Model the fold of this input.
Amino acid sequence: MTSTLINLSGHSITYQPSSGTSLVIPAAKAPAKVTKIYTSRAPINGIPIANVTYSKVTNLPDAVADTYLIVDHLVKAVETTRTDLITPDLGDSAITSNNTIVAITRFLI
Done:
């Protein structure tokens, strides 16, 4: 069985298997985003400080069987009950060039 992957992040994602051709998954035109509410606090040494509260997620469709939605880590952290959300593994397994991630080798669920 083949599952469907839909990229709802704002960035194209390059998946590089251990052997073979890489797969580029284009960025979403309307990515899933977390609504953030900022509350100003007293500055520290003249530098503005704010609290952030994470609210609802926008542009996130309902779950569909055999479909996984690629989202950023913050969306996944807010949507804790969803089992269809995956995020790129940006850790040690990611492929980098000049300290920039150029491809991933796996997703996290």
Summary: Residues 73-78 form the longest helix (6 residues). Helices lie at 73-78.
